[in-house]
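Appendix B, record 7
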Amino acid sequence: MYFVYLLECADKSIYTGIATDVERRFKEHQKGTAAAYTRSRKAVRVLYTEKAIDRSTALKREAAIKKLTRTQKLELAAS
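Structure tokens (predicted):
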């Protein structure tokens, strides 16, 4: 099982990623051992998670979410 997730960073930007364990991945982002993007912007909290049946589906959904505007991502997180 994979998850697509949105993180809010300290600079209020939104990071989109995939993981099999969102909690573990979030901790890696906080420690600075995950993506370079969150290493420099400091992950603050998980905004949203969504289940995906496999890695391929998660990657496709991640790509679709990355194309959304900030407002659309926040609306997704609020839903």
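Remarks on this record: The chain has a mean pLDDT of 96. The two ends are 21 Å apart (CA to CA).
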